[in-house]
Amino acid sequence: MGLRRGEPIIGLLTSDMRFGNMVKEMASTLGVRVKHVLSLDELPLSIRVVIAEKREGLDDRGRIILYREDYDSIEELVERASEIAVGELRYKLAAAAIDPGKSIGVAYVLNHRVIRTRRYGIVESLLDDLSRFMKTHSGAERKYVLIGATSNPENARVIARKIAKALYGRGVIVKLVDESNTSKGLIPRMRGMSKDEYSALMLSLRNILKLR
Domain containing 26: what range? Predict the structure, then answer.
């Protein structure tokens, strides 16, 4: 399939097919295409950003090369590559919607698109991921953390204070919201998604779209 003019696209240089498939799957959730090659010579010059592994020993030839080894996760790597490919000014919104149940369900959102969900057993792991996410998307015009506060308001306030402290000075608005009935939304549960993750997904869809 040929490349369409003006569409965001990432170059991918790797012989690791499993890694390549994970990059493609993640990029597709962000609305970005991937051109997978085994040699940099195969990439059109119009592709500005390339994901690669350091063992490739690349001459960047004026491109932005993002190395797998420099990122804590594939999600963070692909998000950054996508942000460059799309153009940072087009990311209007970066947000995380949190449902503080028995385990903490979180939906991460870019431009009103849920890019992934996560479940956390401890708040500290959540804080680490939120910090990385907001750092990666520091150029977004609006940055929010929405925390469901209906079922357990005191717990939500405690989590909100910890998040506000962790993200202090980054221009992120931390907001408590009503998440009642989020687990009864119209969108069917995704296969393999936990109840807390699904609640967070519904919370994001119901509330983030109001933040215009």
Answer: 9-89
